[in-house]
Write a structure and sequence with these properties.
Helix content is 84%, strand content 0%. It has 4 helices and no strands. The protein starts with 6 loop residues before the first helix and ends with a helix.
């Protein structure tokens, strides 16, 4: 996955890659339900980051960034679960797990710098 410097684009690509990953999974009840959760949380990472960029003030900025980081953590949970239950798709999910952890760290760094 290419890693653009534009975080809005990067979070968009993450959500897109999560959707493509889910399409590759067997259609079991657990994969469908866990996949729905992953779609919601991965989309929310980018959506909240975009809202943070259109802040109404510093409090709003920090609030949206923290939600975005929280959704990244949730995405990681669903990816880990899907990874464990679908070992044949491990290469794809490992790549997504790496990316979501990088996004979480970036968001944490922005939150830390903004809080000062």
């Amino acid at each position: 996955m290419n890693k653009p410097y534009d975080l809005e684009e990067r979070t968009f690509l993450f959500a897109k890659e999560c959707r493509l990953y889910i399409r590759t999974l067997p259609k079991t009840i657990s994969n469908i339900e866990d996949g729905k959760q992953l779609i919601r949380s991965s989309d929310s990472v980018g959506a909240n980051y975009i809202e943070a960029n259109e802040k109404l003030g510093n409090k709003d900025l920090l609030f949206r960034l923290k939600i975005s980081r929280k959704e990244a953590k949730e995405s990681k949970f669903w990816l880990r679960l899907l990874n464990e239950l679908n070992p044949d798709q491990k290469i794809i999910s490992d790549s997504l797990l790496f990316e979501v952890e990088e996004l979480r760290k970036i968001l944490s760094a922005i939150i830390t710098k903004t809080s000062k």
